Amino acid sequence: MRSRRKFLGEASCAAIGSTSVLSTLLNLTMANHAAAQGGLAGQRKSLVCIFLSGGCDTFNLLIPTDGRYAEYTASRSNLAIPLNDPDPAKKIIPLTDSGYGVHPSCGKLAEMFNGTGQFAGRKRLSFLTNIGTLIEPIANKQAYLNGSIAVPKALFSHRDQIEQWQTSVPQGMSVLSGWGGRAADIIHSTLNTEQTANYYMPMNFSVAGNSAFQIGESEGQFVITGEGALGFTGAGGTSPALVAKNQAIRSIIASPVEEHYSNLFHRTHARTTANSVERGAQFQQHYAAPGTLNTKSVADTVRDAPFPNHYISSQFRAAVKTIAIREQLKLKRQTVFIEFGGWDHHAELLENHRNMLSVLDGALYAFQLCLEQLGLMDDVITFTASDFGRTLRSNGQGTDHAWSSNQIVMGGPVQGGTVRGSFPSLVIDGPDDIGRGGRIFPKLSADEYFCELLRWFGVTAGDMDSVLPNIRNFYNPASSVNPVGFLA
Question: Domains plus CATH for the chain?
Fold first, then answer.
């Protein structure tokens, strides 16, 4: 049996699998963190993750329009998007001076990439190509086929690959935590310095329920909805009966619950629930009346933005408002998690993709417009992730689970109008296809992607190993050059 699940080594495995060792690492890095921050602590910054669950077919989102288009049409057959068509709504939209275009449903993404329309002179969006979960670099197809390198466990599995994108530990973890949560473990107390012993607000907010991405060892996530904070019935009431009820609830879900759970996810959930009770009313007070930014009403800006008529828009609107009240929440660092599901298109891909990409296009566009109007554009980076890419070859009407994908990153700090990464050969059974109809292996690791985001966010080189345990297989965190280069 070929060894395809080789791990990093005993020391690294111990650090990943043992809560106590990870605790020690975090404590040691936190001790030196504040002194290393310099001017990083002054600016408020938010990272917004858009998770496209189901596995988006992103090789029909970003499409080569130069000489490689022939490879594209040969491999995609009946799923290929026309380069030229009498109907503009059916043909690829060009990305200026790049050799690429985007799906015809993504005209607004093209505007943000090209710096046209409402974004004239402001290129806010870039693409990362041929990216995926990796434990170590794969030099070539043969290295994968002969089993000489470690690869992520349970490739092509929804559950495992969703977990791996959110944990950034593709070899698996005995105690689950996400890279956003581990970042919070390190920087929440050292960069969110406006908080005091009597005031605590989590830095990780999810508008899509619980996610592995934002679960840390000491820090969890604050789950909200489009209406704001979750709350128990009558949580804000002042009658003696409601006060007594809420005191009982707090006693049930507070620290005694933690003592009975060894699983990190469960312990954090208990704390998260307790925080929801304690902090929900305070969060809701600011969320319900977010005030003005850049002389504009936050509530009016969100209400009037051209979000599509789709459930996902409520998550984006909530994200704008949550970012807009960072100062009131005493947060200089904050993450927001949004999930848009339904991308598992084994059938009817062309129609489903057209409709869903149109929704994503409109939502990202309206979200960025809100940030621009409120003067938040330089403080926020929005990025996509998904379980995996899809096979290049059609299964008749759709595509199946694969590996490498293309992703979107946008915001004022992004060097817009670029495509970063090494676009693969799209030849079926070619040098980048590991088999089964066009499963492309990635050459850019998710770790490199996340590392560049985290450097901007304020995680220091000395702390990066604690957040991304595999990062040194791809990049030296002490380097003066960003690992991918999508940030200006």
Answer: 10-229+294-473 (3.40.720)
